[in-house]
Amino acid sequence: MRDPADTYQAQFHRRWGHLRRARVRALAWLLDAPDLLDPNDPGWHGKVGTLGPMTPAVAQWLADVDYDPTALDAALGNRMYTRLGLYAEKLMAFYFQERGQLVAHGLQVRAARNDTVGEFDFLLDTGDGGLEHIEFATKFYLLEGQAANRFDELVGPNLADSLGKKMRKIVEQQLALGSHPAAQAVLPRPVTAAHALVKGWLFYPLGTWPSISGISAQHCRGFWCSLDEIEQLSGDAFLMLPKLQWLPPFRARSASWILNRAELHAELEAQFDTNPSPVLVSMVREEPGLFEEMERGFIVPNDWRDRAAARRAPQISGT
């Protein structure tokens, strides 16, 4: 594990430790976390956007929302969110709305009643009479394989997605939506810019720290290892994170569900018997009256590498 004082988690706690509410902490992470993709890398051909650095005004606004979350709570409503992507999208919509930038959110484009062409995640006012189309994604990928420059080897925990597949869809299909003939009927003004805004965490085999072209050098990162490898982890206090707590580093005044290493192994072993989904685990330390995340990583079933290799085999053979 890296120097605990130098992890992204430590930086986040120092910067945002005053925020008390989980929703506001999640929004702070979305706005202030390093971009997952490097917008300046020529390989993206200008298709990747960024929110830019956090300003003092936005930081103060977050503190104000934390003090009085009435507007945020109203924007999110009373529904129980089960999809992390939708939850993150709603938080970003609130931010853009409060900034006076939001023209439309989730605007669907249909060629016919039962023929949906696509959907604009966000349409923002550019200030010059045009619209900026933002395709927004919050992703969590594990590096599987040896070729660290191949986005197809950054795969989702359940092996159903990859960074390469996701970005091809965004760049080749979704960002072109503004020029589709059917879009002209619903657009209030022309789309003059279109960008992907991608936040998230990447997870690397335990003990590795690769650099990948096209990925932001400062991106949020963690480890992954198999169940049989958890003895190699440092620390002895762990939390199994529910999906809606995947965005910012964990921080709470109490956490009665802390597990030691043996308890974690037993819990995961039992879970993997019926559910092969990898589990995101937070390694925490206890401060006086406080639990804070130091590192995080996915623990995968012992056969996950074999299943990942089987997924990769057809791609290598070109079938």
Account of the protein in words:
This protein has 319 residues and is of the alpha/beta class. The chain has one domain (4-317). Helices cover 29% and strands 26% of the residues. The chain has helices at 8-16, 22-32, 56-67, 70-76, 84-98, 163-172, 261-274, 304-317; strands at residues 102-112, 115-125, 131-143, 154-155, 191-205, 220-226, 238-240, 251-252, 279-287, 290-300. Strands 1, 2, 3, 4, 5, 6, 7, 8, 9 and 10 form a ten-stranded mixed sheet that branches. Helix 2 (22-32) runs antiparallel to helix 3 (56-67) and helix 2 packs across helix 5.
Write the layout of secondary structure elements.
Blueprint: H1 8-16, H2 22-32, H3 56-67, H4 70-76, H5 84-98, E1 102-112, E2 115-125, E3 131-143, E4 154-155, H6 163-172, E5 191-205, E6 220-226, E7 238-240, E8 251-252, H7 261-274, E9 279-287, E10 290-300, H8 304-317
Summarize the model shown.
With 319 residues, the chain is α/β, with parallel strands linked by helices. Helices cover 29% and strands 26% of the residues. Helix 2 runs antiparallel to helix 3 and helix 2 packs across helix 5.
As for the number of domains, it is 1
Largest sheet: 10 strands, mixed
What's the gyration radius in Å? 20 Å
Report the principal-axis shape: globular
Overview features:
8 helices, single chain, ten-stranded mixed beta sheet, 319 residues, 26% strand, alpha/beta, globular
